[in-house]
Here is the input.
Amino acid sequence: MRCRKLMMGLVLAVALSTLAVGAPPTGAVSRPWADGSRPGSHGAADGSRSEGHETGERTRGAGRAAGVSTFRGWAFDTCLAPPVGTMRRWKASDYQAVGVYYGGRGRACDRQPELTAGWMRKVRGLGWKVLPVYVGSQSPCVTAKHKKDVRMGKHPWKQGTKEGRDAVKKAKALGMRGLSPLYLDMEAYAHRKKKCAKTTLSFVRAWDREVRRLGYVPGFYSSASSGVRHMEAARRAGVRDLPAVMWFARWHTRPHLYREPALARGAWHPERRIHQYAGNVKERHGGRTLMIDRNLVHAPVARIG
Here is the structure.
């Protein structure tokens, strides 16, 4: 009997520790994945032994506990949402999730003839997961020349709040329900310029706060060596209202989630990372060719319907 009680106690302790890994950081607001990351918790998914092998699983942990739908596996993103017929043909590939550029004044492919609420329902019916990307105003010191005409203005907090509201509005119009992630695309910028970094961070925090207030999960996409490194520095400094999920671009390397040098291993962990490891590559599946970026995902996906 004593051994039996001891075993029960050990099981309870393990269960409680598992719940603790998925909990929001101390002092965070009560919304799902409220404030960036819980530092120092490596959990079970260290990426070195299982990344990319268990595609399409409905993962356990923080995502499920918070009501967020999460996905682990391979994804592609492409400028224009492909026709449903192409998405059907691409079921022959290893990809099970697709990134779509659904809104924002900085979106390169502004006209999206295929991207409707009906398209979202149909691709969900085919078994696809969706990663919604919002390309809003860009940093004042954005590197890309073609993004300089959509730089944020002199009131970044106000502008970030406004665009966060727009991101949610457009997500709802496409049938994305609350607790869906919305990924803010912030292209590479000179984050070491203090004034520019301050303005950019203010915009991102305001966008995050508004998206979170409206019941969605704020994510962040950027270059690992600029925007992602900037967010990690802010996390280490204890800044609030940071993104809940980190989508980092580091090309010409093998796909990985928890070995990114710009991020502490325990930051944005678990179920909070996407690695874009290749870009502007052509792939052909089911007789249809697309120009895509390649991603390894262990993160929230849209709740459609």
